[in-house]
Amino acid sequence: MSTGLKNSPSNGHEKSSTCKEQQEKINEVRRLIGPLPDKLSIYCSDASVARHLTARNWNVKKATKMLKETLKWRSEYKPEEIRWLKLAKWMEEHIAHEAETGKIYRANYTDKHGRTVLIMRPSCQNSKSTKGQIKYLVYCMENAVLNLPPDQEQMVWLIDFHGFNLSNISVKVTRETAHVLQDHYPERLGLAILYNPPKFFEPFWKVVKPFLEPKTCNKVKFVYSNDPNAKKIMEDIFDMDKLESAFGGNDTVGFNINKYAERMREDDKKIPSFWTRDSHPSRALQPILINELPSAPINLQSDSDASDKERAENSPSLAHINLESDSDASDKEKAENSPSDGVNSGGGGGGGGGGPVDNNVLDSNESRNGAVGTH
Questions:
Q1: How many Cα neighbours within 13 Å face the side chain of 37?
Q2: DSSP letter, residue 12
Q3: Which one of 53, 264, 316, 331 is most buried, counting C-beta atoms within 10 A?
Q4: Residue 355: is its pLDDT beyond 80?
């Protein structure tokens, strides 16, 4: 995976200076985060920190807060432990049943930029459980990241609206999806193509857009098969011989749950080694900062959640971690001294939009309350 560092389009000196400044910010964020358990430490590669910084316009304070919240989420939700099938008692309930209709699956090809492709079919929803739907989405995101080539960090979503109707609309699921993707997978979405959305989708889109970040909106494109430019748009992005016929491509095979299940079981075997320091693709990108780490542990815990704090204190893997930034700590102190409001809160937003497809991958923008986002 690339480090995600931005280069100035100017001369070589300015490029070098920009890269140096960005590396300094990456190092600063990692120093503020402090020592972490092994899996979370592996997650905090230079590339990962750079994505969080990009999502917050390279604001160290905001990026650190965002990353701490993601580390807290990963330590509790444990997305890397979700499996296609439950093979041991300690594992979470498997998610294979969520995939039976092909509502979300990873294509067996990448786009022309080498980005993993996730295909989504909202009309094939087979579950009413928001928890189950989100868990399967997280599994798909983790699987897409697992299969990214070394030089690529982003993915493409192909959303097929064939058969979509009003019963498939859920603002709750959409809002939760936006929260997970933007807050915990920043800069992972390169492009989302909404293929043949029906006319009645437009009002729903207006409801959804406030949940999404403006620049993320620019990554969401509407494509209609009856548009004369549709084929050219898809040809610019995909190999048409591999692209499914549902999207104007030449592949007529389609989704096969048995073959897909076999692929996922094989992918699940790769997960343990993916999360070991020696083989993780981010290892080469992560500098050793052992001597620069603060001696005192940093608390990654949010002061607004007492019950989570209690769980963290009793957890052997999180007991020494503090997810609270220095700025949050000062806010907490103010809140504790305030007679009226003792809760400090923060938030994040998401993306969406219309118009013709382009191949530009735009950065996430800062949200209205200082949060943004898309491992």
A1: 20
A2: H
A3: 53
A4: no
Whole-model pTM: value is 0.72
Angle ∠(69,287,283) on CA atoms, nearest 5: 80
Q: For the segment 134-165, what is each residue's pLDDT rounded down to a tens digit?
A: 999 999 999 999 999 999 999 999 999 999 99
Q: Which residue reads 């739907």 in tokens?
A: 133
Question: Are 268 and 91 contacting, i.e. CB atoms less than 8 angstroms apart?
Answer: no
Rounded CA gap, 159 and 194, in Å? 5
**94: three-class secondary structure by DSSP:** coil
DSSP label at residue 245: G
Q: Using an 8 Å Cβ cutoff, are 68 and 300 in contact?
A: yes
Looking at residue 93, its amino acid is E
Q: What residues form DSSP beta bridges with 192?
A: 157, 220
What is the DSSP code (8-state) at residue 299?
B
Q: Which two tokens stand for residue 54?
A: 């990009």
Closest CA to 375 of 29, 45, 75: 45
Residue type, 105: Y
